[in-house]
Amino acid sequence: MTTRSVTAPLSARALAAIASRLAGAPTTAAPPGDGRRWERLAANDQYEAWVIAWPHGTGLPLHDHAGSTAGVAMVKGRLRERYLVDDALHTRWWTPGDVIALEADHAHEVLSLNGTEALSVHVYSPPLGEVRFRAEQAPS
What we know:
There is one protein chain. By secondary structure, the chain is mainly beta. 9% of the residues lie in helices and 44% in strands. The chain is built from one helix and ten strands. The chain has one helix at residues 12-23; strands spanning 37-43, 48-54, 59-64, 69-76, 79-85, 88-94, 99-102, 107-111, 118-125, 132-133. The protein has a five-stranded antiparallel sheet.
């Protein structure tokens, strides 16, 4: 089990601003390799930031971030997010320049379905201890 910080988490809006700043950095690039891959960009007691490369056809099934708030900034490509609100499924597309704030109770699936690799920056507070996958799958 991962020990998480007792520091108060940053707001999803503040994390989105950090993600946006990191996404615009000239050093933010896809980690080398094939398949879905990630690299940590920054970490401290309050948050951690990751750049994630999503080749076409890769993604994560329905999950939450175990109580961490998050901010996401899209660098390139498109990702389809399907997320739950009051047990109803909603869909939106994340495109370059989008900055998304995700509250601590946000549950979603994320897939790269646009034919090209997507690149995104994710910032979590407190630092991500785990990702909890949901037993139920998002309806088609």
